[in-house]
From TrEMBL:
<keyword id="KW-0479">Metal-binding</keyword>
<dbReference type="Pfam" id="PF04127">
    <property type="entry name" value="DFP"/>
</dbReference>
<comment type="pathway">
    <text>Cofactor biosynthesis; coenzyme A biosynthesis; CoA from (R)-pantothenate: step 3/5.</text>
</comment>
<dbReference type="InterPro" id="IPR036551">
    <property type="entry name" value="Flavin_trans-like"/>
</dbReference>
<keyword id="KW-0285">Flavoprotein</keyword>
<dbReference type="InterPro" id="IPR003382">
    <property type="entry name" value="Flavoprotein"/>
</dbReference>
<dbReference type="GO" id="GO:0004632">
    <property type="term" value="F:phosphopantothenate--cysteine ligase activity"/>
</dbReference>
<feature type="binding site">
    <location>
        <position position="291"/>
    </location>
    <ligand>
        <name>CTP</name>
    </ligand>
</feature>
<feature type="region of interest" description="Phosphopantothenate--cysteine ligase">
    <location>
        <begin position="203"/>
        <end position="419"/>
    </location>
</feature>
<comment type="function">
    <text>Catalyzes two steps in the biosynthesis of coenzyme A. In the first step cysteine is conjugated to 4'-phosphopantothenate to form 4-phosphopantothenoylcysteine, in the latter compound is decarboxylated to form 4'-phosphopantotheine.</text>
</comment>
<dbReference type="InterPro" id="IPR007085">
    <property type="entry name" value="DNA/pantothenate-metab_flavo_C"/>
</dbReference>
<comment type="function">
    <text>Catalyzes two sequential steps in the biosynthesis of coenzyme A. In the first step cysteine is conjugated to 4'-phosphopantothenate to form 4-phosphopantothenoylcysteine. In the second step the latter compound is decarboxylated to form 4'-phosphopantotheine.</text>
</comment>
<dbReference type="GO" id="GO:0004633">
    <property type="term" value="F:phosphopantothenoylcysteine decarboxylase activity"/>
</dbReference>
<dbReference type="GO" id="GO:0010181">
    <property type="term" value="F:FMN binding"/>
</dbReference>
<feature type="binding site">
    <location>
        <position position="357"/>
    </location>
    <ligand>
        <name>CTP</name>
    </ligand>
</feature>
<feature type="binding site">
    <location>
        <position position="339"/>
    </location>
    <ligand>
        <name>CTP</name>
    </ligand>
</feature>
<keyword id="KW-0210">Decarboxylase</keyword>
Length: 419
């Protein structure tokens, strides 16, 4: 398969140094066989990172104006030939120029000629991101099919903190690779707004496994790693959604463009999901909440006894978040998706138990995993059967958790009310 052609646009912000790591991710993927990267910095970007750095890392010459190698018509050719254009960081100035169709350098000309997926990763101070002018420019770009991902929250230039931080390069790379994979299969071209089928939608995803404290050092929990939930959040962001990810005890890096809310216990998970789900178009409960919690939690570490006896721990049921969401929908047309990790037993097979659970929970879709022998947990791969309340079923063969995530969003998208 020929290398995919990526244009990395870099505008003039302090986060330009992070784009070096993003470039490295592209150039080293598949041992350098997957992507051919052309870096197109603005003149301001070169005040932060010089042209020799970009040339050395990409293996290609670097220009900022339309006059270099003019006989090759770079201001048209680069955009025409690209499979993806990603701008990281995208400053407020760059967003404004792109929204208004200005073309005063090589990067803005490239953006006008590109007919491939375009991703912009904004980075700026919070006040600039929240300004009405920037908000309007972002809305304009999104309405044209540009994927403008939400900036992260954290340390900014100097002592300031807030929303406006460039997401981690690794996560921007994963989002871009996701887009390219879908584009190569015809799932999206991003030549029109409709290609980002979750654009304008707000979705909530839960991930990880909750912990119920027994004492200051012990807890009841499970083996959920959160990888499937994070894959769902990343896939939804790549399809244009506003994503809130409620993460229970997950140590994975935050997906680019996703708001992450961290929780520990099932009660905290319930409160966070219900709060985030208000007005949401879809809620996907990929987390594994603990079914039980101790009736009493010891304030001090439970000690071993001299006679070898073990303490008796009384348990009570946790709230059933999926059933509550299904019974009391956050919105009139909210699509609710649950997960079932089953092993099968004397009372029925994995699918028998899952169908009963679907009816009991009242959700629209139930993603069923056979976890016999510890399969799925912590793995990068997954396979599942997606059961629907209307009686249909979709078998998803073993593949990446990202691939399964997109099949799930395909099913959700087909059930969303018209925007």
């Amino acid at each position: 398969m020929p290398r995919q052609r990526v244009v990395l646009g870099v505008s003039g912000g302090i986060a330009a140094y992070k784009a070096c790591e993003l470039l490295r991710r592209f150039t080293e993927s598949g041992g350098g066989a997957d992507f051919e990267v052309t870096v197109v910095p603005t003149a301001a970007a070169l005040e932060f990172v010089g042209a020799p750095t970009w040339a050395a890392l990409s293996g290609k010459p670097v220009a900022t104006d339309v006059w270099t190698a003019v006989h090759e018509v770079p201001h048209v050719r680069i955009g025409q030939e690209a499979d993806l254009v990603v701008v990281a960081p995208a400053t407020a100035d760059l967003l404004a120029k792109a929204a208004h169709g200005l073309a005063d350098d090589l990067l803005t000309n490239t953006l006008l000629t590109a007919r491939c997926p375009v991703v912009m990763a904004p980075a700026m101070h919070t006040e600039m991101w929240e300004h009405a002018a920037t908000a309007a420019n972002v809305a304009t770009l999104r309405s044209r099919g540009v994927l403008v991902i939400e900036p992260a929250e954290g340390r900014l230039t100097g002592a300031d903190t807030g929303k406006g931080r460039l997401p981690e390069p690794e996560e921007i790379f994963e989002l871009c690779r996701d887009l390219l994979e879908r584009a190569s299969t015809g799932a999206t071209t991003q030549s029109a707004v409709g290609d980002l089928d979750l654009a304008g939608r707000h979705v909530v995803v839960s991930a990880g496994g909750t912990r119920e404290k027994l004492d200051p050092v012990r807890f009841l929990g499970n083996r959920s790693s959160g990888r499937q939930g994070y894959a769902l959040a990343r896939a939804a962001a790549a399809r244009g959604a506003e994503v809130t990810l409620v993460a229970a005890n997950v140590t994975l890096p935050d997906p680019a463009g996703v708001k992450v809310v961290r929780v520990e216990s099932t009660a905290e998970l319930r409160d966070a999901v219900l709060t985030a789900a208000a007005g949401a178009d879809a809620v996907v409960m990929a987390a594994a909440p603990a079914d039980f919690r101790p009736v009493h939690r010891s304030d001090t570490k439970i000690k071993k006894s001299d006679d070898g006896s073990a303490p008796v721990i009384s348990l009570e049921q946790n709230p059933d978040i999926l059933k509550e969401l299904s019974a009391h929908r956050p919105g009139a047309h909210t699509v609710v998706v649950g997960f079932a990790a089953e092993t099968g037993d004397a009372s029925g097979s994995v699918l028998d138990l899952a169908r009963a659970k679907l009816a009991r929970k009242g959700c629209d879709l139930l993603v069923v995993n056979d976890v016999g022998g510890g399969a799925v947990f912590g793995s990068d791969d997954n396979e599942a059967v997606i059961l629907a309340a209307d009686g249909t079923a979709v078998d998803v063969p073993r593949g990446s958790k990202g691939a399964l995530a997109h099949v799930i969003w395909d099913q959700v998208s087909a059930r969303l009310a018209p925007a």
